[in-house]
């Protein structure tokens, strides 16, 4: 069953911190494009919402996904992690058959 992606509380909390530091609301865009070492890659940027975007809201924050990327992110979890190599937003994608070591690109 195709369900929209889910955003964790930790990701919304980090987005709220980014907005507070910037002094204005920030919208996190999660997109999928061709490329990367595995065929597709995630693009995670701060952006403005477009009319056709799916908007996932929580804690007063917004994560948006364009309609082309949405099928690739069905049932995925958008999270924020802090590791020794750095802190970053990550995608846990059950649709990905494999992914590269950096976690940015994947294949289906």
Protein topology:
Layout (H helix, E strand, L loop, with lengths): L5 E2 L1 H14 L4 E8 L5 E8 L6 E5 L2 E5 L11 E7 L2 E7 L5 E2 L5 E3 L1
Parallel strand pairs: 1-6, 2-5
Antiparallel strand pairs: 2-3, 3-9, 4-5, 6-7, 8-9
Provide structural commentary.
The chain has 108 residues and is mainly beta. It has one domain: Sandwich (Hypothetical Protein Aq_1857, Chain: A). The chain is built from 1 helix and 9 strands. It has one helix spanning 9-22; strands at 6-7, 27-34, 40-47, 54-58, 61-65, 77-83, 86-92, 98-99, 105-107. The chain has a 6-stranded mixed sheet, with helices on one face. A 3-stranded mixed sheet has the order 1-6-7. Strand 4 and strand 5 form a beta hairpin. The two termini are 17 Å apart. The model has no long low-confidence stretch (mean pLDDT 86).
* Count of DSSP strands: 9
CATH topology: Hypothetical Protein Aq_1857, Chain: A
**CATH architecture annotation name:** Sandwich
Low-confidence stretches: none
Give the helix/strand class: mainly beta
Domains counted in the coordinates: how many? Answer: 1
| Broad shape | globular
* Cross-sheet strand order for the largest sheet: 4-5-2-3-9-8
Give the SSE order as H and E letters.
EHEEEEEEEE
Q: Superfamily at the CATH H level?
A: HesB-like domain
Instruction: Give the termini distance in whole angstroms.
Output: 17 Å
- Please indicate the percent range of residues in DSSP E strands (runs of 2 or more): 35-45%
- Rounded to an integer, what's the Rg over CA atoms? 13 Å
Q: Regarding CATH, which class?
A: Mainly Beta
Helix content: 10-25%
Mean pLDDT: 86
The major β-sheet equals: 6 strands, mixed
